[in-house]
Amino acid sequence: MERMIATEKEEHKSLRENVRDFVKKKVEPICIKMDEEDMFPIGLFKEMGKMGYLGVTIPEEYGGSGMDYLSQGIIEEEIGYSSASLALSYGAHSNLCLDSLFRNGSSMQREEYVPKLSSGQWIGSLGLTEPSSGSDALAMKTNATKNGDSFTINGSKTLITNAPYSDFFLTYAKTGDNYTAFAILSTDEGFSRGKKFNKMGMRGSPTGEIYFQNLKIKEDRIVGKPGGAKDIILSGLNIERIILSFIFVGIARRALEESLKYSIERKQFGQHLYEFEMIQDKLATMYTKYETARIMAYESLSRVQEDKMDALHAASAILYAAEISEQVSREAIQIHGGYGYVKDSGIERLLRDAILGQIGAGTTEIRKHIISGALVKQFKDNPRILE
Asked: Can you tell me the distance from the alpha carbon of 127 to that of 302, in angstroms, rounded to the nearest whole number?
């Protein structure tokens, strides 16, 4: 199902075709195995670095491709079409960790860490979520105490994407009444990993725990300004939400395409499935929801690119994309019947993967809270905001 995005340039169209070719040749043959064995394809992930995908938003002088968030969204959508779990790990590395590090990091950090993450030599994670602070990210308990020109960090993070394999963690900690971002390496003394979680969906994207016990690092490991991480967290969450929404657009597209293919090939009572009015109703509704989510994601991305603090559009895009990917995947199973319930079909995996969309990067309930709050605030300032 070919689609032209209004803001796409030739370089974006070329990127989309290249990623589709990569997905067809390298991802599609192993996507079911990744899910069944909960296998993270490290070699393939590092190959994505060599192809320029991991550092797509990073300037070329730091080992990146020098492209934009639209390019990152395209990669997320196309990989998500085949393996949402690989797309999730890609997003955690490329956007949540690497892009934020480059935007906020020092010259030393850009020169020392960014090329390793861009090339795939290192795998990266974002260390934000804690056992007692999921939706309320700012209620974190991990703390960093200053001692001369160094900091001592104690605490833990949980449900961290890529944690079992990551070499680098962009990590947030309390410093007094404020928050500070730190660059932490898996080789730092005092760092350790906890268990790898056995998840319902997004299998193949490793998720785990990390611990900091009297971990000492120098001031040059601070990302941004000391005590200035709150804005990094909030702007990072907005970009994260809009970029990750493309995974769920990809899931919805796959569910719809598989349903169209099956309804054309399959016959019941002497008729093709698509000839039944109930199936027509499902396909029409699935398409409308998918197309709306796709348009909304790209429109919201253009707005967030201009204003990284635009929580309204970021939360709206992932709210809708996540909800409809689950709905469309559920209908795909219904259309496929018993076959859609069988793991070998790959159809039931779409639904299991889609469910994470309403939990990760802020729950559905948190997103609605953000959207309503932003609407009320903006309407007070300008009653014609919706025109």
From this structure: 27
State how far the Cα of 66 lies from the Cα of 55, in Å rounded to an integer. Answer: 8
- State residue 7's pLDDT score: 63
Task: Quote the crossing angle between the two packed helices 364-381 and 311-336, to the nearest 10°.
Answer: 140
**Residue 1 has what pLDDT?**
38
Of 177, 199, 229, the one marking the end of a domain is 229
* 4 located within any domain: no
Alpha helix stretches (DSSP H) within the chain: 10-22, 31-37, 42-50, 69-82, 84-91, 100-104, 107-112, 114-119, 229-265, 277-306, 311-336, 347-355, 364-381
Residue 17, domain extent: 10-119
Residue 46 and residue 87: Cα distance in Å, rounded? 14
The predicted model scores a pTM of 0.94
Q: Report the C-alpha gap between 98 and 66 in whole angstroms.
A: 13
Q: What is the pLDDT of residues 285-321, one digit of tens each?
A: 999 999 999 999 999 998 888 887 888 999 999 999 9
| Burial class of residue 159 in the structure, from the number of CB atoms within 10 Å of its CB (0-12 exposed, 13-18 middle, 19+ buried) | middle
Question: Does 240 participate in catalysis according to the annotation?
Answer: yes
Residues of the chain falling short of pLDDT 70:
1-7, 134
CATH code: domain of residue 220? 2.40.110.10
Final residue before a domain boundary, out of 88, 119, 150: 119
Selecting among 77, 240, 331, 348, the annotated active-site residue is 240
Distance set, CA 271 to CA 256, 285, 333 (Å): 20, 21, 19
User: Which run of H or of E encompasses 157?
Assistant: strand 150-161
Identify whether residues 61 and 132 lie together within a single domain. no
Specify whether 216 is located in the same domain as 237.
no
